[in-house]
Write a structure and sequence with these properties.
This protein has 299 residues and is of the alpha/beta class. It has helices at 3-12, 15-24, 27-61, 73-87, 91-102, 105-117, 134-144, 158-172, 207-213, 229-239, 259-266, and strands at 148-152, 178-183, 200-204, 218-223, 243-251, 269-275, 287-293. Strand 4 (218-223), helix 10 (229-239) and strand 5 form a beta-alpha-beta unit. Bound molecules: S-adenosylmethionine.
Amino acid sequence: MSGVVRNIVKAVVPKPIRDILRTLVPKPIRRQFHLTQSVRRLRKFYFGDQLRMIKPLVFHTRETHNFTYDLTETNLRYLEEVIAVVTGKTPDEIGGFIQEAINDRELRAYFDNKMALYDGQKTPSNVTSPFGRRLGWYAITRVTRPRLTVETGVERGHGALLLCAALLRNCEEGAPGRYLGTDIDPTAGYLLSGKYQAVGNILYGDSISSLKRIADPIDLFINDSDHSAEYEAEEYKAIACKLSANAVILGDNAHVTDKLARFSREANRAFLMFKEQPKDHWYPGAGIGISFPRRAGGH
Ligand SMILES: C[S@@+](CC[C@H](N)C(=O)[O-])C[C@H]1O[C@@H](n2cnc3c(N)ncnc32)[C@H](O)[C@@H]1O
């Protein structure tokens, strides 16, 4: 019985009669009934807003996968804390890098212009929050200054663009590095052009075969291609012997599988998982699995 119906019954039916009616219904049935009411209330309380948002957002953005959104303020703070633990920097320093990306007006203008011209088959529109958890990828790139960053699964290139923006800043500060993306889709990487392309390029074809061709040590590896558990594990296997001593691995599938956590444990590496909390969006959020070298006396 909904709250409204219950109030009407209360107002219309006198209490003594309500009590008699209650005794006529067996206790197990009353208990079932109350639990069913609780299920309805819980569904509405915990998921009502999200369910209501799906339709308007899908029609507004035309996004049916690889959704874009900002993170909540609290979630951004948690992201800073997690990356501070991974990198040994302070949360404020990490926050500084995250704000650097958010406030990069040139990057923002570039993104907006490219998206306005985008003519993909499944063209998204009104994409106003391009980076979400990838801001964590940016901060890690800025702190660790990788010479070689590899991202498997580029798609439109949200991650590629942000990673290359970080690499350009590193280069300005005397720490050059390059980005290699891999994607099976020959149209992937739309956002990687202009000045950002100067530090990055894409290897087209199956990711595992592309990874096998990489000869240089990998300092930062991001898994975001075929999200089956088996394929993800194969990617870690393919790069295991190519990782540099301080390499960091980011798994974009860690909210779905534990393959990166397992790989880390077997390789005696530390592992943390950051779970994202999208702001004003129905999507429950993905995460960043982070595998990094254990520090002496540390994690
Ligand atoms: C989730 S999207 C990547 C999103 C991207 N990292 C970003 O930041 O927006 C996954 C991409 O992986 C690619 N992909 C799927 N299977 C692949 C494979 N076996 N080898 C290489 N790329 C693959 C798809 O074409 C798709 O573009």
